[in-house]
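ok so I'm stuck.
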Amino acid sequence: MATSKGTGFSEYANVGMVDDVQYTYYNSTMKEPVLLTDWMNKIKGREFWEKRTWYILHNEQILKWSLINTVQHFNHTGVHTYQFMGYCELHDNRTRRAHLNHAYDGKDFISFDVETLTWVAAVPQAVFYKHKREADKAKQQIVFDYYRRECYQLLEWYLQYGMETLQRKVRPAVTLIQRKARESAGTDVICHVTGFYPGEVEVNWIRDGEALLEEGVWSGEVLPNEDRTYQLRKILTVSPEDQKKHSYSCQVDHASLDEKMDVKWVPEAALNMGFVAGGVLAALGLIIAVIIGALIWKKRASGARSPDYTPAQTKEQSDASSNSSNSTNDDRCDSIAEKLMTQTE
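replied:
not stuck anymore, here's the structure
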């Protein structure tokens, strides 16, 4: 990207990426570009790096020139930017694709067709730029050679020496989180998939083990984690009626998996009901036991106390009286406990 002078930002910045891994960086305040990955040092040694540095510095001159010419053509003042993104792709079936696209102030401006070696204006105002670039045959040939041959050669080198980083595979972790839906009486179930690499992943909500759901499903974007892995969320909204009639699972397909991962959603309400019911019964049994114990203690305590003096009894009278009193109190307590148990049931 090239930026107008006087902004406080560097007038030019260049970032090199292989897939999602940044390997070079340069801006106009630096003496030369820097390598950001160790494995790049192994690629063709100094010869390779000198060639790559030449392209980065060459692009600096091209972009600054492009910004100046475009601003003058529009007779613009103030701060403006000129950007380009060029890339080449190698697919598993060995097919290739290359593209170069330019933008002015963040909007598509012009692109380069590698096959026809022509510039294609995205807006009428870019026709002047097309004529300027196509008139410079020497620079035109540099662009053509890079996007037809050298870009692919560099990419193959990157893949060869950076295989450990670029072609690693990390399994995803899947967590289901349940919450009340904000705009309905239903339930939102969040399928949070995280920690996976590479970033390409397919996540779907499945009903009854076979029906792929699209309605009622919100999908987030694949976002980067700090450890160079990725995460993604997909939220399913389930009505109370459907929750009773159907089963749901979150299905994940990723390059690190031998087969699709299927995580079934078990509604939290169903799990909690069992724990609540068991807790209520246990608490009720404890209350009943406490009441019975209190009643027995109270009856026995009241029988042991006497407000008036009575003459001492003989041993035979005392034993008989004690047995009779205990029998009566026990019978009454048993009767009370039985009534309580009957009412509780």
